[in-house]
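Bench notes, afternoon.
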Amino acid sequence: MKLLSQSLTACLIAGCAFSVAAQAEELTVMTSGGFTAAYQRLAPEYAKRSGDTLKTVLGPSMGKAQEAIPNRLARGRTR
C-alpha cells in the first residue's frame, strides 16, 4: 500500500510538472492522510526542481466533515 501511495503521488506531482496549467508560482495541493507521507517525501524535490511553492491543505478523503476533501471541492473551496 505504501508503494502504491508513493507511486500515485509521484504521478500526480509529475503530471503537475508537465502540465501547462501548472506553471503557477504557488500550487495548492489538497491531500489526505493516506498520501501524506509520500507527498511530504516527494514535494520538496518537486518544489526545488520546478521553482514552484507548494501550499499544502490536509483533510480527510471522505466523510461528512466540512474539511473532507470532496466537501471542500463541492463548495469550490481549496482551503
